[in-house]
Amino acid sequence: MPVLDLTSDPIDLCAALVDVPSVSGDEATLADAVELALQKQAPHLELLRSGDAVLARTNLGRERRVLLAGHLDTVPIADNVPSRREGELLYGCGTTDMKSGDAVLAHLAATLTDPRHDLTLVFYDCEEVEAARNGLNRIEREHRDWLRADLAILAEPTNAGVEAGCQGTLRAEITTRGRRAHSARSWHGSNAVHAAAAVLERLNAYTAREVDIDGCVYREGLQAVRIDGGVAMNVVPDECVVTVNFRFAPDRDGAAAEAHVREVFDGFELAVTDLAPGALPGLTEPAAAEFIAATGATPSAKFGWTDVSRFAALGIPAVNYGPGDPNLAHTREEHVDTRQITDAVAVLRRFLAP
Amino acid sequence: MPVLDLTSDPIDLCAALVDVPSVSGDEATLADAVELALQKQAPHLELLRSGDAVLARTNLGRERRVLLAGHLDTVPIADNVPSRREGELLYGCGTTDMKSGDAVLAHLAATLTDPRHDLTLVFYDCEEVEAARNGLNRIEREHRDWLRADLAILAEPTNAGVEAGCQGTLRAEITTRGRRAHSARSWHGSNAVHAAAAVLERLNAYTAREVDIDGCVYREGLQAVRIDGGVAMNVVPDECVVTVNFRFAPDRDGAAAEAHVREVFDGFELAVTDLAPGALPGLTEPAAAEFIAATGATPSAKFGWTDVSRFAALGIPAVNYGPGDPNLAHTREEHVDTRQITDAVAVLRRFLAP
C-alpha cells in the first residue's frame, strides 16, 4: 500500500495523492492509504469508514462544527499520471480536481490538533459520476448524523476564492411531432424537424436573468444541449427532441424553475428529465461569515452544481473553497499552481487555529 | 433446386417466386431457378449471367429492342413468407416489390416467342441495398452492351399505371458552428443548435416548385431528414448538422439542383453528400409512345428515384410499369391485387405481340 506523509509539504502530499490512481469506482487503494495515514499520523481523530469514503473527526465539545470535504476520485487518466512538477506548477490527473484540495484537508487533519471548531473531514468516492453513486449521497442515506455541521467547506477548485451557494439545474426535453412520409412525396407528411424551428426561436429570444443574493451575482442560462431528429435519409421525420438545460439562481426552487421553463415553452410538449435545486449562499450564518472574514476574499456565485447544494438541502451553509483553476478540471493539461495549495492551507489554518 | 413453371398462371408463378426467399445478397437460389426455367422453357432466348443476375434476350433482327427489368431481391422477410392467397389478394414478402413484376416478365419470356420488338429480359440482384451493390450497376460497368435498348420498362410496382422518368435526389449537410462552454457558464460559449434555427426557418419559408414535363407533373420537395447537435448534457454545443434532402424535377440536372440548394442556404456552410440525377420522361420517343398507347393509361411522374434514371443516363427512355401498390412495398402486410398481374401481362402482350 502506498504510504502518505500527511505532515510533509502539502504540495508533495498532493503529488503523492495524484500518483495513486483513483478513477471513480476504483478508489479503494487511495482510500485505504488515506485511512492508514490518518490512523498513524492523526491519532487525535476518530475514524469512520463507509465504502471507499473515509471520515475523520474531532470530538472536542466545541460550540460549532465545521465539515471539510474532498472527493478522492478523478475522471479517467489521460496520459497524465504520474504527476510532474514544472516550476510553480504541478501537472497531473486530479491536481486541480481535486487532489490539491484533498492534500490541504489531509495536511490540516494531521497538523491542526486543537482546532477552534470541531472538525469533520470527509474524503469520499464517486463524485465524478452519476449522483446515485456519489459517496456523500451514500453517507447522507446511511449515516446522516456523520454530516452534522454548522458550516461545510468543499475544497473544490475555486482558484482559492470563495464561491458561495450554487445554481440549480433543470433538464427538459421538448418534443415536436409530425407525420412520416417518403421524402420523395413529402407533401404527405409533416416535418417535425422543421417544427423545431419555433422551439429554437424561443431560445434565441430568451433573455437570461441576473440576481444578486448576499452580494453574489447569479447569472442564469437556458441552452439547448442536444437536438435530435430523423428516421432515415429518405423519410420526413415525425419526431424531433430538443433537450434544454436551465441553470437557475438559488432564489428559485425546483418547482419555480420548472414553472418558468414551462412558461417559456408554453404550447410545446415538454418533459422534465432532471432537476437538482441550487443552494442559497447562506453567508449570513455566523460560521460562514467568520470563514469569509478569514479568507479576506469577496465571495462570488458558484455557477456549476456541486455538493454544496446537498449541504444546503440539509440546512448547512456551504461554500466551495480550494486551490486549482476549475477551467483546467478534466483536461489533459490539468495542473495546479502550487502557491494556491500553500495559500489555502494558510487561510484554513487561520480560520481554524485556536 | 425449386422448379418454376413459367407457363403457368403468372399469379401462381408469383407465389412460387415469393416462396423462394431472396433477401438482397442471398438471391443465388432464385437466380439459379430462374435461369434453369428459362433454359428449359424458353429455348428461343439467349441466356447470359452476371453474378446473381440473369439476362435472356431474343436476337430476331427487329428494328427496335425493348428491355424489361425486374429485381429478384427483397427487403428482409417479416414473418411474411411463404405467400398466402386471400381472395383476389396474394400476401407475402416481395408480392408487390417486385416478384409480381418478375412473374409477369418471366411468363412473357416463356410464352411470347415471336415478339414485335427484340426483347431483353433482366432479372437482377441487390436493388434494395446501396447503389454500389446494385446488379444493374454491375452489368452496366462490365457488360454495357447487354443493356442496349430503345425503351426500358422497369416492372416496379405502379398499380399497373405508367410512371415516367423520375425525380433526382440530392442530400446535403448544413453545419452551424459555435463555441463550447459549460452550460452553467453559457455566456462563455456560442450555441450552434440555437444557430440552426435560421436553417430551419429557410426550410419553413421554402416553396416547392411543380413542373409539367410531357404531361407529367413533377412536384419537388426540400426537407430536413435529420438534425443532430449536442456534446453532453452540460455543454453548450459547438456544432449542429441539419441534413436536407432535395427531390428535384428532371428538368434540373445535378449541377442545377446543387446550385439551387446552395442558393436557398446562402451564407451557411453546406456540403453535398449524395446526388443522383433524375430522368426526363422521354415519352416522345417512338417506342415509349407506342407503349403508352398500348397501356391506354395517362402517364404520371415518378417521385421516388428508381433505376429508370440509370437508363435515362444511358440515353434510353425508361418507364416504371408493374403490378402492385408501391405504398405496400417493404411492409409486413405486403400484398398484391392479383388482377393487376393478369392485367399487366395482357397489356405487355398487346404491346409486344406480333
TrEMBL record, chains A, B:
Record key words, sorted: Hydrolase, Metal-binding, Zinc
InterPro entries: ArgE/DapE_CS, Bact_exopeptidase_dim_dom, Peptidase_M20, Peptidase_M20_dimer, Peptidase_M20A, Succinyl-DAP_deSuclase_DapE
EC category name: hydrolase
Top-level taxon of origin: Bacteria
GO molecular function, one term: succinyl-diaminopimelate desuccinylase activity
Pfam families the UniProt entry points to: M20_dimer, Peptidase_M20
Entries under SUPFAM superfamilies matching the protein: Bacterial exopeptidase dimerisation domain, Zn-dependent exopeptidases
Domain Peptidase M20 dimerisation: from-to ranges: 168-265
EC numbers, comma separated: 3.5.1.18
Cofactor: Zn(2+)
Xref: PANTHER family: ACETYLORNITHINE DEACETYLASE, N-ACETYL-L-CITRULLINE DEACETYLASE
NCBIfam families in UniProt: dapE-gram_pos
Protein's name in the database: Succinyl-diaminopimelate desuccinylase
Protein species of origin: Pseudonocardia alaniniphila
Lineage per the UniProt record: Bacteria, Bacillati, Actinomycetota, Actinomycetes, Pseudonocardiales
